[in-house]
Amino acid sequence: MSASKNIKPAKITKICCIGAGYVGGPTMSVIAKMCPEITVTIVDINKEKIAQWNGDDLDNLPIFENGLKEIITERRGKNLFFSTDIDQAIKDAQMIFISVNTPTKTYGQGKGMAADLKYIELCARQIATVATSDKIVVEKSTIPVRTAQTIKQILDNTSSDFKFQILSNPEFLSEGTAIKDLMNPDRVLIGGEQSKAGEEAIEALAAIYSRWISQEKIIRTNVWSSELSKLTANAFLAQRISSINAMSALCEKTGANIEEVSLAIGMDSRIGSKFLQASVGFGGSCFQKDILNLVYISQTLGLPEVAHYWENVLIINDYQKTRFAQNIISTLFNTVSSKKITFLGWAFKKETNDTRESAAIYVAWELLQDQADIHVYDPKVTVDQISRDLKLVSKGLFNGNEGQGTITIHKEPYSATYDAHAIAILTEWDEFKTYNWQKIYDQMKKPAFLFDGRNILDRKQLDTIGFQTYQIGK
Ligand code: NAD
Ligand code: UGA
């Protein structure tokens, strides 16, 4: 679908975004920065979060992203606002982005697999109830294919006075590089209804992105292709990680080196070199939930082979996390009971404070079953967040069997590693490479075991110091 010449889109001057999270916060901040003539209001039901976004302490924003606080300093109070007055923001805006969470359902039909669309539905009902003019509603959240139809049904049946156009505009940013990704995306995808009104809505949104993104990068499709492309992109990305992680297990049995294999295959331009970093397993709020959702959709549409195919990406990911934990236990003479095991890193990747579905949580759980005394240090994750994650563990998310180990959280790495039996690297933070590893070795119990779940440390240097080092796929 390409832009028609005789379409005259409405000029957008007021935007509302429902959901002030990892997507809503950065995406809207960048729109506010690049379009100073547009007033952007981000709203949320979470009062604490909005207070943090509005707070004076810019080191205490709800999320950490490089470059974000500079944009907030520049635009907040000028054309960027954070508010809990959702009704007013909806009324004022011509265009409303929905950026609320779409987690995996934890109850009823589709439990553990389907996306829970209750927050999306609530937004649609609220928009329909309070709108006092026509609106363009933009799905920014990741949702199952054909969700736009649900939103449209709710809007059209709740409010008969005004016209609503639904666009799909999925977000492809990665946490840790959100601002960079938003400023210079590989592409922007806009799906809309194939009608004159649909095209006008698409072009109104395209005009916003055109302020800093070239036309060739703005793809226009039908709504269903756009919705499905988002799930497909995440499934393909996760699949690459599971593929390389599956190979890492084979490397460990054969003497091949996964980094050499990654390099060799990545230089094939058809394969490409990105996303071939073997690891302790992927985490993050989206890969698992989006693939589960894809599996569920495939199953319910009577496509079990497709469902089974994608399910294996998750099976390998779980295998990789378990394999890492089991290797720690078996290497430490088949038990970690009452042994100090230090985790360096808790976030699901570097440069973010997000811990959702982090591999660290799963590895911790496995070791706690074996009664380990786990000590954690992460440069950005707060003590409170780690405690919350562990409470979820002990609340029975994992069948209620949390073992009898202990967890201690540290504010710096040297106390965390003092007298430890073993260190496990769970996140690839750059600062880990700069530590005084001789000092850490000297203060550890011997033999000093080091399990590098991210392959970030210099193995030769560690071996020379005296560590017994284990890396992934080597
Ligand atoms: P998040 O949990 O960080 O933020 C969602 C926010 O929506 C929360 O602050 C919540 O309080 C708010 N909210 C929920 N229901 C609401 C309602 N009815 N009214 C007002 N506010 C409401 O989630 P996120 O990580 O920003 O993800 C949002 C969506 O974007 C998801 O669908 C996710 O799959 C998708 N996505 C996320 C990323 C990412 O990197 N996190 C990237 C691309 C796409
Ligand atoms: C991912 C996608 O990359 C984004 O395009 C997408 O918008 C987003 O999900 C989403 O929909 O939420 P994100 O989860 O923020 O972004 O981070 P990634 O960089 O993709 O990393 C995900 C996980 O895979 C991390 O745990 C990371 O450490 C791991 N990973 C990544 C590897 O183990 N190996 C790699 O080679 C790359």
Please describe the structure with a list of short key phrases separated by commas or semicolons.
alpha/beta, six-stranded parallel sheet, binds nicotinamide-adenine-dinucleotide, binds uridine-5'-diphosphate-glucuronic acid
Summarize the helices and strands and which ones pair or pack:
Blueprint (H helix, E strand, L loop, with lengths): L13 E5 L5 H11 L4 E5 L3 H8 L13 H8 L4 E4 L2 H7 L2 E4 L19 H13 L4 E5 L7 H12 L5 E5 L9 H6 L4 E5 L3 H14 L8 E5 H32 L3 H9 L20 H14 L3 H28 L8 E5 L14 H11 L3 E5 L5 H15 L8 E4 L3 H5 L4 E4 L11 H6 L6 E4 L6 H7 L2 E4 L3
Parallel strand pairs: 1-2, 1-4, 2-3, 4-5, 5-6, 7-8, 9-10, 9-12, 10-11, 12-13, 13-14
The structure holds nicotinamide-adenine-dinucleotide and uridine-5'-diphosphate-glucuronic acid.
